[in-house]
Amino acid sequence: MKTKVLAIDDSRTIRxxxxxxxxxxxxxxxxxxxxxxxxxxYTDVDPxxxxxxxxxxxxxxxxxIEELRGDDFASKVPILVLTTxxxxxMKARARGAGATGWITKPFDDDSLIFALKRVTGxxx
Amino acid sequence: xxxSIQDTFFEECEELLEAMDEGLTAIEGGDQDxxxxxxxxxxxxxxxxxxxxxxxxxxxxxxHKFETVFDDVRSNKLQxxxxxxxxxxxxxxxxxxxxxxxxxxxxxxxxxxxVLIKALEEYIDEEEEEIVFEPMGFxxxxxxxxxxxxxxxxxxxxxxxxxxxxxTPMETLYKVRFxxxxxxxxxxxxxxxxLQALSDLGTMDVTLDDSELPGFDVxxxxxxxxxxxxxxxxxxxxxxxxxxxxxxxxxCELTIDTEEVEAxxxxxxxxxxxxLSALNDAFGTAPAEDEPVAAPAPLAEVAPxxxxxxxxxxxxxxxxxxxxxxNTPPPAKSESRGPKPTLRVELERVDxxxxxxxxxxINHSMLAQQIANLDAGDVRDVEIxxxxxxxxxxxxxxxxxxxxxxxxxxxxxxxxxxVREASSxxxxxxxxxxxxxxxxxxxxxxxxxxxxxxxxxxxxxxHGVEKPEDREAAGKSKMGEIRLSASHRSGxxxxxxxxxxxxxNRPRVKQIAIxxxxxxxNAELTDNEIDNLLFLPGFSTAKEISNLSGRxxxxxxVKNAVTSLGGRVNVTxxxxxGSVFSIILPLTLAVMDGMVVSVGGQTMVxxxxxxxxxxxxxxxxxxxxxxxxxxxxxxxxxxxxxxxxNALGLKDPFSDxxxxxxxxxxxxxxxxRCALAVDDIxxxxxxxxxxxxxxxxxxxxxxxxxxxxxxxxxxxxxxxxIIAASPAAAFDPDRRMSNASAS
Lengths: 124, 743
Fold this sequence. Notes:
The complex is a heterodimer.
Chain A: E1 4-8, H1 12-24, E2 28-32, H2 35-45, E3 49-53, H3 61-69, E4 79-83, H4 88-97, E5 101-104, H5 109-120
Parallel strand pairs in A: 1-2, 1-3, 3-4, 4-5
Chain B: H1 2-28, H2 34-53, H3 57-74, H4 82-104, H5 110-121, H6 154-159, H7 164-167, E1 170-180, H8 182-185, H9 191-199, E2 202-209, E3 227-234, H10 238-244, E4 252-262, H11 273-283, H12 347-373, H13 380-404, E5 405-407, H14 409-426, E6 430-435, E7 440-442, H15 443-464, H16 468-473, E8 480-489, E9 492-499, H17 506-515, H18 527-531, H19 556-564, E10 568-574, E11 578-586, E12 591-599, E13 602-607, E14 611-616, E15 622-624, E16 630-634, E17 637-643, H20 644-647, E18 662-667, E19 673-678, E20 680-688, E21 702-707, E22 713-717, H21 719-725, H22 733-742
């Protein structure tokens, strides 16, 4: 079974980069273009891990985490926040909402895989 | 792969830059919606993010400054005043330049770059400065205060200068105690995976510490009573070990102690999988496949006594992904929210389709013709089906055209920048107001309109709008307004550039045209004709070539560009009030509705859009004015007649006088009416436009060719240029009629 990733990012560039890296590393890749679509897709995709951007239209990354961790979904799936915000308060806020970890853009392939490994145990 | 992702990035940048410009324009217009500010922020942010991924440092650095300022705007730390808005516009323009440069190479104006950076920095508090892109993961973190262990010096090893004993790779024994707090489980972090990641760093021995575990009667199911003591032997630096626990910092009690050991001294006898299987036992998980077996070097003394905790004692909440209830219907995708789903298709594929549709339409006409020629009795049924075929073909054609159609909005938005730049270069105050941005036009047309529009707009700022002091003296507001609008009118696209400047200086324009030998000295021209002298090749009104719209290139370039699109351009002007440049373009470049006529024995096509009315003439309707031509009387008014056959040189103009035939009443762009005399009208049908470029070049009066149902080639006429070339062009009904009545 491939590890299923649901990536939520409004930047096509980032989505393509993630797709290239993750598919090459043997993940099953799904993506959504904003937070709302990501939350809507969650049930269908049933991912093993969610990667979400913070700054997005419709629903931002914090909103995604809050909804997924909220009562409607009660998701225990790891959620990695993908963001250029390296500010500590940003990480703290994401974690307060229930984020599992973060990936700082620009990411390199190794760091991305390493982060996924730490939260999903996916064998590379 | 990387290349195509980079292409995507640049494509996306274009969209983001447009969104930025749009947002800034709305903000400039006083729109206070925080979502607009957010959208601009996100656009800059996304450009920065993408640029970072491709190592475009200059772009990242500039976007970062821009973003920082905008973030303060977003959080209301900065007030948007006109000065700041102007700066943001300039920064947005510069960002666009940087993107272009990153894509195409070349130089940006370093001085301009520095000026903008400085200007942006004035708005940035010092403490929020300094861009940090810490690569996440190994070595990127420095959470602990302890220095990293030095890695072996590879250069020194290569040089062979140091004795072998000291170059033996150093291993470190990390003694880690890891006690997750219950809060950790709310974040989706899983101790097992963390320990698994840790085991990748070297060889590991894990001991479960369940000493805190209370009896079942007092157990709090949310609490975690377990801790792990780990002994890890690894060549990795401490930071790598810490990186494993990066996400759970503050969510667990973690201590890491280090001892140095030499790898070579450790007996290599134990099994590396022992640690992992202990882990698996502890968590009740199956061994992960392909788990790499690290260099065997566990500590001999810890191997034997290993407590095996019962899985039942595991207090943590289920960490496996919890499925939302299967029977919950997935939330329906709301139609009203967000942009409609789109599909990105290579242009070439669409063009292939368009070509095929063109052939389909030709094919239809041929079929129709052959059926009409059939000597069979009743073909009505066939004709009905054929009619259905025709309608379907038309539907397909319209559908395909719609794929190529794009709103002019992005084009218009780019023009705002042109006006800004032109204004600052000329010291004038101008703003661009756009209308009809949603008007859709063929993609190629949009692409090829960019240059002529740029030229017209620069011209409008440079020559149209007056200097602020002159405007004030004329009782106008200091700020000049240039209105750029697009609309669909009767099968054509109208693009207008309307300025509220001084209008065309007609005496001067006429004098220049005479001086340059473009018109004879005694030429009698209507106001409108004088205005349109601007489009003559070699005409340039700037006294000295200004560095803006000058460069020795005149408005004739605009005319050529528009004509090559099958369109027309003209200018009308009111002294003191301003000028209007109108560009009229066909909706599509591939198919049009045409009237099939015969002229001088040849079959030709006249675009329906230019025909106002058709009529059969008789002798009484015609009045011959000798060398000046012929007039057609229609319901009490006179219209000059243009004999198409004459104009095209298909018959000797002196052979006979105008024969009453069929007249196509057309209206030119300037509102002048003219009757085109043709021999007969045959049909009205859709024709596929085939360009003559590259076949026989430009022919006056002919815009393109088409293939008719019988397989013959027919020329598509350009009424405008036919009339311009005929005596009818010189006809001014008012002047003539007043002359006529005077005599």
